Amino acid sequence: MRILLTGATGFLGSHLSKAFLAQGHDVIILKRSRSNTSRIASILNRLIVYDVDSCDIRRPFQDHGKINAVVHTATCYGKKDETTGMIFEANTAFPLRLLEAAAFFNTDTFFNTDTFFNTDTLLYGYLKAYALSKKQFGEWGKQFAEAGAIRFVNIKLEHMYGPEDDDSKFVTYVVQSCMANIPELKLTPGEQMRDFIYIEDVVLAYNLLLVRSMGLAKGYLEFPLGSGYPVTIRQLVETVLRCTQSCTKLLFGAIPYREHEIMYSQADTTQLQSVGWHCTYSLEQGLKKMIEEERKRCKVFVTP
């Protein structure tokens, strides 16, 4: 199968690019010329690379003929002082141009990586533009699919975690803090319930949907993707502390909840299970594997 992937230099995209190559697919990636390719350095020579800021977005379709699927994982959260216009360009305008090109060149399926934030719930101020831009693109995808232009598979992703994620991500921050035995870790009361899913289970779902997509109904399809087993933030952090054998003191309640804090989130994995997927990592198993990989990568060893 020939796959066009965005966000290949990011956390999810780098894991997907390696998995797709391992499955024997031809993988074309769209990236910026200034993108940091360290996550995919070991496979870069096996990928077909286009710098999207220096070529027309239709170019890969023109050069390679039939592209079976587009897998869109690139995103902009707005955490680096991006303007609203920049967030809109990254999360709505750019993927819409890509969707138009895919439909024009008769690509079978467009896989969109969406977020569980896309509800009618009020959000933290800094995420409102992000969530709105993602929601707008999802609506465009639905319109294209309902018009029969392309199959649009919307994957609503919960809290993904694993080795080599950005240091700014919550799970990575907690793991690295506990591994480093920092004196204390200030946290909210930790009663929020979140659905954490290990990266390998996420990749398994994408691989399965990619293979099964040809047999799925045409039109718009949506798959919530999480473990299906939410835990409190407190449970997560205490599990990290135990698995790292850390001496860090956990100060729950030292930080107030954000305004409009989402207190409960859980993926309904019924649809994914109906096509043969199931979660293989428990939270503790996933955290233990992440910690093991982080120790190898960072060469940080905790003294019990």
Task: Provide an overview of this structure.
With 304 residues, this protein is of the alpha/beta class. It is built from nine helices and 13 strands. Helix 1 packs across helix 6, helix 3 runs parallel beside helix 4 (128-146) and helix 5 runs parallel beside helix 7 (233-244). The relative contact order is 0.13.
What's a quick, concise take on this entry?
With 304 residues, the protein is of the alpha/beta class. The protein is 38% helix and 19% strand.
Give the key terms.
two-stranded parallel ribbon, 304 residues, UDP-galactose 4-epimerase, domain 1, 19% strand, disordered C terminus, alpha/beta, 9 helices, Rossmann fold, single chain, seven-stranded parallel sheet, 2 domains
- Percent of residues in helical segments? 25-40%
Distance between the termini: 48 Å
Estimated radius of gyration: 20 Å
What is the beta-strand fraction? 15-25%
Strand order within the widest sheet? 3-2-1-4-5-6-11
Unreliable residue stretches: 118-124, 300-304
CATH architect. name of the largest domain:
3-Layer(aba) Sandwich
Count of distinct structural domains: 2
What's the total helix number?
Answer: 9
